[in-house]
Every structure is written in structure tokens, then in C-alpha cells.
Design brief:
about 525 residues, alpha/beta, Luciferase, domain 3, 14-stranded mixed β-sheet, 16 helices, 27 strands, about 30% helix
């Protein structure tokens, strides 16, 4: 690597690329120089408040310039960002801030009501720092008056930068500890794959509290390319934005193409772009060729996790993989194995768990040594994904080993949703499972045993869940049952709960369509 840390990369990029645009949001560009100056101003301000090496700072900001600038400013200080999903409600927000023991909370003014409701339960947070669009908050005024320069600090590549929360296979969300080196490596991989330079334009439609816009930003810093930031993913406006900004490369997650595919075909939009390649995770094999036909650009698959960054990728020139379901082959810095339940390698073509070694890789899970020890074994990260390796050396995903739900790109731990449902006075027992869904991959279903004396009212339970959980975690389907099959240790046997029911929607209340199935 040419840089030891993100701050050093930003300084170098600002010297090399100067007035070229780095970030573009709602038609307004910020050059490499301007981003560097704004980062310096925020870093000076944060430092004056006592934020420094190792301090955790929760950041809850919508898409725009503020998130990447705050991230880079914290990187300059050797501090640690805790990105927080802007859809979080009280339960999710409290858990994340308390678990990370954040000392400060940086948030947009529109999220102040959530903060006011939970602040008395977050003793670690010394101060909330408010950013508003008008720039009139005390914190914004302090930034505006701060110097444009900042004395760089010695920060080693293995310094912790992100505690990136992700719902793993079981339990509550876990904080992946990601270093400066992690981001530099994944950014370099993306910059090389996309062949980024001044003539390329990248775009991100995902929210910045996800890892995808973050590594896209690092890739653009390395390659000298602008990153177009959309406020959100909007299927009806997506291609217009791609055309308007002359976008040449972009990354999407698997559910997004389905929403785009449902839009009426418009040749001027579908083929009026300058895209060279679309990188996507979770491309549905059945529709892969249709994506390429409709939009006239290669779609290539990549596989990775927050814990590991990127692991497998399909080469850009490999059109043979279209529609095969192949996730790709290992990148040069990763080693991959497929093992059985005993930990032994399986033969090609046989089902087994994918395990990974190499860089980039998380340090472990924040404040959770038992989960770290379970996931990282003898230097190998156990993904929990069951795969098959084909004769060409490509890996094909088959299933998840443990209990998580993948809804429209979100990893949802069933245990977390169950714990919230159990807080409702009418709920005696709850079990959450995944329901296959063509559009979103999976939907959330809750089996519920109602306490004696309470009515079976799905709307009241739904209302409570919506108050406590981010919208994407709220069950779409609710089914009431009299009892649940359990093991000798009183664990619900979910495989028996869903057995002999080919369509898990039947017998459920659909909280979206508001009907009994």
C-alpha cells in the first residue's frame, strides 16, 4: 500500500487531483481540495471538543457531503466512527450507542426526536453534535470558523477506524472492527476493477451508513474519479441520474435490479447511458441475461461481507458466467476453502461452508470475544454461507447455515426481532423465520403464541414493532399458533415449525397488503 491511513490518502489525493470533482450531490460538486479543506475544518473542531485516538463517535447522517467528511475527519484524528442506520428507532439506536460506548453522537437535526427519547439511557455519550442544512447549529458554526489546515497525525494501518454494525447469523447486531488498512485495501481492489481515472464517473445509491458507499469513496480517492451520491435509491429516477452525470461504473445490491426491471422499458433511458460495467452482489441467475439485454452493459457478480470486504469476483471479461449463479473466484489476496461440519475440505461440486483467509479482514467483533472466536478460527473466517465450487473454480451460493434473514440487502438477526416482539404484553412466545420473496430475496415472518386473556390482533403487535425496530426488520407476515415445537433445552425448532408448508405466507396476516393469506 502507498498510504498508511485514510488521512494520508486524502492529503495525497488532494495534491494530485486538486480541483477535479471528488463528490457530487444534487448537482453540486466538491473538488478534492474542497473536501480536504472541509475535512480539516471538521477535524479541528472535533479535536477541540476532546475527540481523539480511539474515541468512538456515533454518526447518524443522511446521504450527502456530511457523512464522508465526518468519516474522514474522524480518520484524521485516529478516532472511530460508529455508522448508525438513519431508519433506526429507539431500540436499535440505544443498543448501538450503548454497545459501542460512543462518547459523542453526531447527527442531523431531523433525528433529534429519536435522540431526545433515548438520551437518558445512553450514559456514555458526553455530547450530541447537531448538523443542520442551514449551517446555523453551534457545531456547524464552529466548523465554519475552523482552520482549513490540520496537522496530520501518525496513524498506523492497523488502527481501528469503523465499528460497522451488521446482523450476523444469530443474536443482536455485532460491531465489525475495521481498520484503515481494511478500507485502503478494498478501495484499491475496487479502483483496479473499475479502472478508475479522471475519465470515469462512479455512482452510489446506497445509504452511507452501509459499507458500500464508503469503499466507493476510497476507490474514487485512489483513482481520481468523482463519486455521484444519490439521496436514496429511486427506481423511477435512477437511470436519469446515471445519464445526467455520465456515470461509467457503479455497484448495486441484488434487490435493486428487480425494482429497476419493474419500470416500463424506455430505450432512451435504458440505453442512453455511458456505463461500462455494473458490479452487483446477489444477481438472480434467472434474470441476469435480461439485465444485460435491457441495459446493454455487462453485469458482474461480487461476493463479500462486512467482516471480509470483498472475497470473490467475476472478471469483467467473463461473459460465460452470465446466468450461471457464479459468485466469482477469490481475489488475489484471499484464500478460500469449502468445508464440511467436521472442518474437512469437501470435493469440488459438494456442498459445504465457505471459509476465508487473507486481506481485507476485520479485526474481530467489538466487545464480543465469544462471537469473534466462533467466527475466526485458526485465521479462517467462517462465513456461514453454504456453497458449491464448480469445475471452473467458481463458487455458487446455496443457503445460510444459521438464523438470519436477508431482506433487500439488509441482514436481519431473527433473535433481535424476536426479543422486541416478546416485549409486547400480548406475546408469550415468538419465532422469526425467512419467507422467500422474488423482489426482496426474503421477507420476515413471525410466529406468535398469544398470552391467555389477550386477543390475536396483528395490527397492535405490528404497531409496537414499528415503534421499536427499523422498518426493514418489522415482520411482514404474522401467524398465530397455539404452541411451538421445542428442543429439550427449550429452543424453538424452527425447521419443524415451517415443515410441510410449501408456502409460508398461507395462514399469515400480510401487514403490507393488510389481508389474511
Amino acid at each position: 500500500m502507498r498510504w498508511n491511513n485514510i488521512g494520508q490518502l486524502l492529503e495525497d489525493a488532494s495534491l494530485r487531483f486538486g480541483e477535479y470533482p471528488l463528490l457530487v450531490f444534487e448537482g453540486q460538486p466538491l473538488s478534492f481540495t474542497q473536501v480536504n479543506q472541509r475535512v480539516n475544518q471538521m477535524a479541528c473542531t472535533l479535536q477541540s471538543l476532546g475527540i481523539g485516538q480511539g474515541q468512538r463517535v456515533g454518526v447518524m447522517l443522511p446521504n450527502g457531503f456530511d457523512f464522508p467528511i465526518a468519516w474522514f475527519a474522524l480518520a484524521r484524528l485516529g478516532a472511530v466512527i460508529v455508522p448508525i442506520n438513519i431508519n433506526y428507532h429507539d431500540h436499535d439506536l440505544s443498543y448501538t450507542l450503548n454497545d459501542s460506548q460512543a462518547s459523542f453522537f453526531l447527527l442531523h437535526e431531523q433525528y433529534q426526536p429519536q435522540w431526545q427519547r433515548v438520551r437518558d439511557h445512553i450514559p456514555s455519550v458526553k455530547q450530541a453534535l447537531i448538523i443542520d442544512d442551514a449551517g446555523s447549529s453551534v457545531f456547524c458554526q464552529q466548523i465554519a470558523q475552523a482552520p482549513l489546515t490540520f496537522d496530520s497525525q501518525e496513524i498506523e494501518p492497523d488502527t481501528l477506524l469503523n465499528i460497522q454494525y451488521t446482523s450476523g447469523t444469530t443474536g443482536f447486531p455485532k460491531g465489525c472492527m475495521l481498520t484503515h488498512e481494511y478500507w485502503l485495501r478494498i478501495g484499491q481492489i475496487a479502483a483496479d476493477y473499475f479502472e478508475l481515472d479522471h475519465d470515469q464517473v462512479n455512482l452510489t445509491a446506497q445509504p452511507f451508513y452501509y459499507m458500500d458507499p464508503q469503499w466507493n469513496t476510497i476507490a474514487c480517492l485512489i483513482g481520481g474519479s468523482p463519486l455521484v451520491i444519490l439521496p436514496r435509491f429511486s427506481p423511477s429516477h435512477f437511470w436519469q441520474a446515471v445519464i445526467e452525470h455520465n456515470v461509467t461504473v457503479l455497484y448495486l445490491i441484488g434487490s435493486m435490479p428487480f425494482f429497476l426491471l419493474k419500470q416500463d422499458e424506455q430505450p432512451a433511458l435504458d440505453r442512453g447511458h455511458k456505463l461500462r460495467v455494473v458490479l452487483c452482489s446477489g444477481i438472480h441467475p434467472k434474470f441476469h441475461a435480461e439485465f444485460e439485454r435491457r441495459w446493454g452493459v455487462p453485469w458482474r457478480e461480487a461476493y463479500g461481507m462486512t467482516e471480509t470486504g470483498v472475497d470473490l469476483i467475476v472478471p469483467r471479461e467473463d461473459a460465460e458466467s452470465v446466468g450461471s449463479g457464479a459468485m466469482g473466484r477469490p481475489i488475489t489476496s484471499k484464500q478460500v476453502r469449502v468445508i464440511d461440519a467436521a472442518g474437512k475440505d469437501v470435493e469440488d461440486g459438494q456442498l459445504g461452508e465457505l471459509i476465508i483467509q487473507g486481506q481485507p479482514m476485520m479485526l474481530g467483533y467489538w466487545n464480543n470475544p465469544s462471537a469473534t472466536a466462533e467466527t475466526l478460527v485458526d485465521g479462517w473466517l467462517h462465513t456461514g454461507d453454504l456453497v458449491v465450487k464448480d469445475e471452473r473454480g467458481y463458487y455458487h451460493w446455496q443457503a445460510r447455515l444459521k438464523d438470519t434473514i436477508r431482506r433487500a440487502g439488509e441482514n436481519i438477526a431473527a433473535a433481535e426481532v424476536e426479543s422486541v416482539l416478546l416485549e409486547h404484553p400480548a406475546v408469550q412466545a415468538a419465532a422469526v423465520v425467512a419467507v422467500p420473496d422474488e423482489l426482496r430475496g426474503q421477507e420476515v415472518k413471525a410466529y406468535i403464541v398469544v398470552r391467555a386473556g389477550y386477543e390475536k390482533n396483528p395490527l397492535k403487535i405490528l404497531e409496537y414493532a414499528r415503534q421499536q425496530l427499523a422498518y426493514f426488520k418489522v415482520p411482514r407476515y404474522i401467524e398465530f399458533v397455539d404452541d411451538m415445537p421445542r428442543t429439550a433445552s427449550e429452543r424453538v425448532e424452527k425447521h419443524r415449525l415451517v415443515a410441510n408448508k410449501p408456502d409460508l405466507r398461507i395462514g399469515s396476516y400480510d401487514t403490507v397488503d393488510l389481508v389474511w393469506r
